[in-house]
Amino acid sequence: MWLPDKAFELFTVSKENIDSLKEDLAAVRADRDATKIHLVTVQANFEWLRVRVNALEIERVQLIEKAYGLKIPAPEIARAPVQPLNLNQDIFNDMGEDMAKTLGYPVYNS
User: Fold this and answer.
1) Which one has a higher pLDDT value, 23 or 88?
2) How many Cβ atoms sit within 10 Å of the Cβ of residue 61?
3) CA nearest 52: which of 70, 77, 33, 34?
4) Which uninterrupted H or E stretch holds 78?
5) Is the pTM of the predicted complex or chain greater than 0.85?
6) How many CB atoms lie under 10 A from the CB of residue 100?
7) φ, ψ for residue 3 (rounded to 5)?
8) Which residues of 87-96 are buried (b: 16+ CB within 10 A; e: fewer)?
9) Is the distance from CB of 86 to CB of 92 less than 8 angstroms?
10) Alpha-carbon torsion angle 6, 7, 8, 13, nearest 10
11) Domain boundaries, the chain
12) Cα(18)–Cα(24) distance, rounded to whole angstroms?
């Protein structure tokens, strides 16, 4: 069976293309690793700052109570739990006007 040379050219791979793809992959992996390290650093800094601000708020409330005799609640920065994305849930599902009203969202009538 005879096949034209053009058919075999479809299956040839250039070494230069492979080398450039490998270099691109190495660069993307290096950026990814640097981003991961930066993310860990930022998260640690945020956690330290959150704890420090909460401590200062508690101290402020204690000083106001001691100075003025007022008992007020201390605001607190809390980490919100990360919700995994549920791909089976329809994110564009309309909850309806009644549910929106009960949740306190503004309802616009057209």
Assistant:
1) 23
2) 16
3) 77
4) none
5) no
6) 14
7) -120, 140
8) eeeeeeeeee
9) no
10) 90
11) 14-80
12) 10
